[in-house]
Structure formats: C-alpha cells, structure tokens
C-alpha cells in the first residue's frame, strides 16, 4: 500500500512539473526578449493578412490528368509565395461542386498587388542546356542556357516503369514541333545534361541532379523518358511540376479577403477572454456541486489546459479562431469525463465500499462511457480534418488533440488525486 502511494506521488509530481513547464512555454510574453524565441503560429484571422481564392481552369485538361495538374499548380504557387518571405503561408486546394480552387493565405503581407500578379501567372516550363564559361582568373562557371523548347510543346508527363527492371521512370511526350526541337537539342548534347526549369528555377531546387537528366542518345519521335534513382514520392513530385508548367491550366482570382492586424489582435483578445471566462465558470460549477471532488477536477483541468497549449505550441499548430473554438469545446468534454467518474464513484461510496474500491469501481464503470463518447468525437474530428479544408480543419485538429489529452487527464490525473487526497 505504501509502495503504491509513493508511486502515485511520484507520477503526480511528474505531471505537475510537466504541466508547469508547458504553461510557461505557452506564455509568449515571457520569451519575447529571448533569442531563439518561438512565437505562437497564428492563422490569418488572428494575425491579419490576405486570403486569395483562385479558380483553376481545367477545361483543356484530360480527366485523368486533372488531379495531377491541380497538385502541381498548388506546388508551384507555394514556391512563388515563399519568395515573399511571408510567415507561415498556406496554400491548399478545395473543390466546390465542379469547380477546382486554390486558396492562398498570406499572413502579414504588405504588397498584396505584387503577390496577386506573381501568383496569377501561368507556370512556365523550359528546357535549358548546360554550358561552361571560363572566367579571366581561369575558373569555370556553369551557365544554364535557354533553348527553343518549353512547356507549350509538351503534351503530357506521367509516371512509368522500365519493363525490364521495373525501376520508376518519368515519361513525357511532345507535339510535332516540339519533337523537332527536342531531336535537335538532344543530338548536340549527347553525354551532357539538359535541365528542366520551372518559373526560372530548377524543377527540383533541392537536388539539381534530379532537374538535369543526362542525354544518352539523340531522341526523335517526340516521346522520351527520364530515368534515375527516383523514389516514388520524388517521381510524383517531378511529374506534377512538369505538368503544371506544361499543360494549359490558367488560374483566375475570384475572391480576395483582407484582414487588418488590429482586427486580428482584437479577435484573439476576445477569444482568450471568452475561453478564460468559460473555464472559470466551469470550475466554479464543479466546486459548488461536487465540493472537494470539484476542486480535484478543477486542478486537473488546469493541468490539462497547460499540457494541451504546450503541445500545440511545440508542434507548431497554427491557431485560428476555429481552432480556439475546438480547444474550448475540448475543455468542456474534459470536465464531462470527470463528471461521469464522480457520479459513478459517489454511487459506490453510497453502497458502502471502501475508499480505494469505490474509486477503482467508479472509474471502471465510467470508462466505457468516456471511451465511447470520446472515440465518437475523435472519429468525427478525423473525418472533418481529412475531408474538409480551411477553418474547419483547424477546429477538427484542436478538438481531436484536446479530446485525446482529456482522456488521459480524466483517467490518470484525477484518479491519482482522488486516491491520494480523499479519505
């Protein structure tokens, strides 16, 4: 019995220490003057900025290629957005009826018109030759020289496999005019690389080798393949970017929403205030109704809030108004689990069971209800996260994480305090 109590004290002490550290880590004003400070990642509705919604014109694209082209466009636009140095830009696709759209969220951006202009340009794919130039000091410099061949001559790119070795390759085809240019270019570059550039950058900036396949022989007929030690993920990435710059899929700006930073800060302040008031009211209710048990639930709730906020910040979760709403809802669900436990435990006390037996039986009887309700909420949150976009995903993510931590809080933290401090 003594060994059990010592074990509970040790574990509870560990939770208290971690919760305090998480709470301090979550409180930004403490860290703002420290180098390497990691601030909260705030969404557009809290940090201010601009949200741009584009419609993708896929009318000239074959049905089999539409998803590939849409993903490729998203990838290209994300790279363009990163050039602005915007903090935590978000680019995601969404489907509304038959319409394919791209949403670009730029938090804290200043030159909106420049961003709109650059994002709206159709991606440009080009083939470049590699030449070496000798400088006056005798050193050589590699130059990438544009050729007559570009994306408008490419009809399609797709994943393939070598029929002999089953190794992944990238197949692409050109129209008649492009085939003529390609035959000429490959004929004079045998044994040399030809580089694929998209928007003036190598198609895979992280690895120039993937962007510059070496010509093995003169290629005629307008069909070619790129071979190499590609992983499936890297090969898909090349195909998507290849198609984004090759196939005619222009985008059109259909909605622009700008949120001022002052308005975002005001929304954040109100959300925090509402969450704090709601939490205090819940704690007062629990203490008034359950007395000592309510005090334990309130303390466990504070631990829960600190742990969840610390986890959100550690993982870099982008907080939005909808995400804060999901978190506040999870606080209510954490208390709901405690209520189920207390009611079951009180029933066991009334039956005359001993202290430890009543607590164990109360948790055992409440667990199935807590488990089933929380799993149902987790499934719903998962569906919302994977099958929606934008603010709904933020709500689903924070609710899911909150519910998982609340199960731990109700079943471990509250249980340990009951065993240690009730008579």
Report on the architecture of this protein.
- With 423 residues, this protein is an alpha+beta fold.
- The chain has 2 domains: 2-42 and 260-421, Multidrug efflux transporter AcrB transmembrane domain (Multidrug efflux transporter AcrB transmembrane fold); 50-259, Gyrase A, domain 2 (2-Layer Sandwich).
- Helices cover 55% and strands 19% of the residues.
- It contains 12 helices and 11 strands.
- The protein has helices spanning 2-26, 44-47, 66-82, 112-120, 176-187, 208-211, 232-246, 261-290, 292-315, 321-350, 355-387, 391-421, and strands at 49-56, 90-96, 99-107, 125-134, 140-150, 154-161, 168-174, 194-198, 201-202, 223-227, 251-259.
- Strands 2-3-1-11 form a 4-stranded antiparallel beta sheet.
- A hairpin with a 5-residue loop joins strand 4 and strand 5.
- It is elongated, with a radius of gyration of 29 Å.
- The mean pLDDT is 82.
């Amino acid at each position: 019995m003594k060994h059990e109590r010592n074990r509970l004290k040790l574990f509870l002490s560990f939770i208290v220490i971690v919760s305090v550290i998480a709470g301090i880590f979550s409180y930004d004003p403490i860290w703002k003057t420290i180098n390497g400070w990691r601030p909260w990642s705030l969404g557009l509705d809290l940090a201010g900025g601009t949200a741009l919604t584009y419609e993708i014109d896929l009318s000239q694209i074959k049905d089999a290629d539409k998803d590939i082209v849409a993903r490729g466009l998203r990838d290209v636009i994300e790279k363009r957005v990163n050039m602005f140095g915007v903090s935590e830009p978000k680019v995601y696709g969404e489907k509304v009826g038959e319409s394919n759209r791209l949403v670009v969220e730029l938090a804290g951006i200043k030159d909106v018109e420049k961003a709109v202009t650059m994002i709206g340009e159709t991606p440009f794919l080009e083939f470049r030759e590699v030449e070496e130039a000798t400088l006056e000091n005798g050193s050589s410099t590699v130059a990438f020289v544009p050729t007559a061949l570009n994306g408008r001559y490419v009809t399609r790119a797709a994943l393939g496999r070598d029929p002999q070795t089953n190794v992944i390759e990238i197949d692409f085809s050109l129209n008649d005019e492009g085939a003529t240019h390609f035959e000429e270019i490959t004929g004079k570059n045998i044994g040399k690389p030809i580089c694929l550039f998209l928007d003036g950058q190598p198609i895979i900036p992280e690895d120039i080798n993937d962007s510059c396949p070496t010509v093995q022989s003169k290629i005629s007929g307008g069909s070619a393949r790129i071979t190499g030690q590609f992983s499936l993920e890297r090969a898909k990435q090349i195909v998507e970017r290849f198609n984004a710059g090759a196939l005619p899929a222009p985008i059109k700006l259909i909605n622009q929403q700008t949120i001022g930073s002052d308005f975002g800060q005001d929304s954040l302040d109100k959300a925090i205030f509402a969450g704090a008031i709601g939490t205090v009211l819940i704690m007062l209710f629990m203490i008034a109704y359950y007395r000592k048990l309510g005090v334990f639930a309130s303390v466990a709730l504070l631990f829960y809030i600190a742990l969840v906020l610390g986890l959100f910040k550690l993982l870099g979760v982008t907080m939005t108004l909808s995400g804060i709403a999901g978190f506040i809802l999870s606080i209510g669900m954490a208390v709901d689990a405690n209520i189920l436990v207390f009611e079951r435990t009180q029933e066991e006390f009334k039956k005359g069971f001993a202290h430890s037996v009543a607590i164990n039986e109360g948790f055992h009887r409440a667990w199935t209800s807590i488990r089933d309700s929380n799993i149902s909420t987790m499934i719903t949150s998962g569906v919302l996260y994977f099958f929606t976009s934008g603010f709904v995903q933020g709500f689903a993510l924070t609710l899911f994480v909150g519910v998982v931590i609340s199960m731990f809080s109700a079943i471990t933290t509250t249980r340990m305090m009951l065993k240690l401090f009730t008579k």
